[in-house]
Specification:
The N and C termini lie far apart (about 70 Å). The protein has twelve helices and eleven strands. The N terminus is likely disordered. Strand 1, helix 2 and strand 2 form a beta-alpha-beta unit. Strands 2-1-3-10-4-11 form a six-stranded mixed sheet, sandwiched between helices. It has a three-stranded antiparallel sheet with strand order 8-5-9. A two-stranded parallel sheet has the order 6-7. Helix content is about 45%, strand content about 15%. The longest helix is centred in the last third of the chain and has 22 residues.
Amino acid sequence: MTTRRTMLSALAVAASLLAAPAFAQGFPSKPIKVVVPQPAGSGPDTLARTLADVLGKSLGQSVVVENRPGANGTLAAAYVLSQPADGYTLFLAGVSNMSWNPHLYKSLGHQPARDFTGVAVIANTPFVTVVAPSLGVKTLPALIKMAKAEPQRLSFASAGIGNSTHLASELLKSRTGIQMQHVPISGAGGPNALTSVMAGDTPVMTTVPVGVVPLVKSGKLVPLAVTGERRLEQLPDVPTFKELGIEMEVPGWYSLVARAGAPGDAVARLNTEINKALDTPEMKERLAGQMLIAVKSTPADVLKFTQRESAAWGPIIDKLGIAQ
């Protein structure tokens, strides 16, 4: 009887091992996909591909990037949520995807804080307010003076309603008491809007610095102020909003998330390797080139960041009446 019980126990153990999912045998055992909600060549796409290169080496598996742009990231989010919750399909989600979209879209179809599992917050970006040279202003106080003197004159460009470039300028209006008309210019992740600014059609924009600095250096844009605690190394003569006495905290973080229910050991492994990757010379150099600030984090930090920005910006979005 003892022998029979021993054999049955051994068979049960063997059966459980055979039935165990792949992640328990060592994650990752196949290629990982990172879904980016912006087009190829955009800032987030570059970030994803940089991270994919480094992670692929440390994980010993291919990490491929797939672009699914459109609808402020909702298309990419829906795709990730349609995939198995196995940790092999990840979403490069920005603050707008995680914190703002639930306030922007009445029929979003998912709740980011509930339906995604945080893997890691990766990086944060500052923002810079720029104007067309033809506007004739060189400082933020000069822009504020002009806007107050002629409330209906100025317009600002954004990459779309509810985009961070939209909400950042709305915050600028609120903090300074000025009026500007919003002109959303979608397409190509923001360059179309910058083209409009350079032409003077919509002469003001608050956006991320990557892609802007070369235009500043060539005299096609005039920078007025940057967010953050310190000046940008690439724009040392441009003051921070804080130096000018204006509170302008605009979140620009990117995170990696997986579908809720992803195996805990898979999430933990990815988090560990991402934090290691942020310390590599390759990542440090590439992040600096994109003017991104590395953020080391735990998986739980993604939810904390998501809830914090949702609470802070939800009332602003509601007040603007831009929910669709």
